[in-house]
What we know:
The structure is a homodimer of 285-residue chains. Chain A contains ten helices and ten strands. Chain A is globular. The relative contact order of chain A is 0.13. In chain A, α3 links the parallel β3 and β4. With 285 residues, the first copy, chain A, is an alpha/beta fold. The longest helix of chain A has 16 residues. In chain A, the strands form two sheets. Chain A has a six-stranded parallel beta sheet with strand order 1-4-3-2-6-7, sandwiched between helices. A three-stranded antiparallel beta sheet of chain A has the order 8-9-10. Chain A has two domains: 174 residues, HUPs (Rossmann fold); 91 residues, Pantoate-beta-alanine ligase, C-terminal domain (Pantoate--beta-alanine Ligase, Chain: A,domain 2). At the A-B interface, α1, β5, α6 and α7 of A face α1, β5, α6 and α7 of B.
Amino acid sequence: MGVVVVETKDAVRAAVRAYRDSAPGREVGLVPTMGCLHEGHLSLVRRARERNGLVVVSIFVNPTQFAADEDLDRYPRDLERDLEVAGAAGADVVFHPSTSEMYAQAHATWVEVERLTEHLCGSSRPGHFRGVATVVAKLFGIVAPDTAYFGQKDAQQSLIVRRMSEDLDLGVKVEVCPTVREPDGLAMSSRNAYLSVEERRQAPILRKALLDVAAAIDQGERDPRRVETVFRGRLAESALARLDYMEVVATSDLAPVERVAGEVLVAAAVWFGGTRLIDNVMVSV
Amino acid sequence: MGVVVVETKDAVRAAVRAYRDSAPGREVGLVPTMGCLHEGHLSLVRRARERNGLVVVSIFVNPTQFAADEDLDRYPRDLERDLEVAGAAGADVVFHPSTSEMYAQAHATWVEVERLTEHLCGSSRPGHFRGVATVVAKLFGIVAPDTAYFGQKDAQQSLIVRRMSEDLDLGVKVEVCPTVREPDGLAMSSRNAYLSVEERRQAPILRKALLDVAAAIDQGERDPRRVETVFRGRLAESALARLDYMEVVATSDLAPVERVAGEVLVAAAVWFGGTRLIDNVMVSV
């Protein structure tokens, strides 16, 4: 309630500085979002509220993480509702800059994270993580939070951002929070709004196929190719699902494993019509 | 005098934080160096001393800005003397980290600045400015100064760092200070120590050739090719000088100009034996 909306870097910097001066020793949390807030985002806001004296939510649909043929223009936006639900979940400040406020016309600097960006969504969406790492570095610079909150649904993004914050000494801790799901298991995502009724009905197959994989590994499966066979077997039950990728990678460097061992991330992207959904499951053996 | 030497990121962060808590509103200045401090560096320290409550000098020979065939191993080092002269010039804290303190084994993140890095030293030393931008971003993150001080001798570096700080919203002002010269005009540089007696005798030709260029432009020369002819004509007087590059670029984007107009940077790199020296002159028409 009573969330303050600011649209300039200077204003959000001033708000954070004023808070820090008024409450020495208390912490500042940042929840970076592209808006259209759903329960997944709001769980991050609530977590930030529990842990910090000041909670900043950024809402910025970052053009540099979309390729030319992607869904930048139709990405859902609903600022009025976002402010209401962010405030109710505990946000103090919403930072909602324009593109020209975020990126100077002469902008020339990009943050590249090697290795962690090579597989999974990095190969399906070239340049995507360069845009993500750059805008998150900027948000960390502007807000200078103690901790930033990301969702496990975007597992690769979280690991890249954490590596980036450490490598560039930005001084921001990255906390990864559990994926929030619809009752039928579909991971919450702003892109779920694109699904037709029938696509929406079939979309939970992605989660089911990942749970099948986790069960197979629990029962001793160690061969990533057979893991993929399990995954594809379940996915075939949906006439509309088209596989983009399914990979079994080490959580340390996100490189594909030869054999399932230690802590692995099984991550997948699946198209339903024109909508690409992602989800993942972490397994330790 | 009484300069404090710290070797870890945590220690320098703690020193800056303690200063800021003790002196609210006073500013912090950073002079990033690779050590072997000469009068050029010390002029930056003195400038920082005039303008800030706390002056931090970093001394770190950054391996990621050297190519495999460059002079990383023989780059001159003299910490004891550096501490003495930095303290005398007004440094409060010298940050002198090891390579493993600066770069985690899993380091994977690089800061790339487009366009500004394409010409001049950027084409002669591929990857050099990626290393510079990355380590300076890290130093800005660690020290969080209000202002950082760089020398005009490294004009391209200063412009790249300023662009980077603005683009990544690091909140650090970049102040560029005049080149300090030996009595015969040679720009101060740690690499001057590599020169043989005869190379050292001939090295001021670089400055002389740049002054010839400035005079020719003053007298109406507007064609960059004829500017280069003037430069080469003077350089030919030195038997040991071998031209790496001489370019006339716009200060806005460091792209070569078709005609001299507005504010241009005439920058050159010249080899004397195994030593590569750089210098430049800014001209407004």
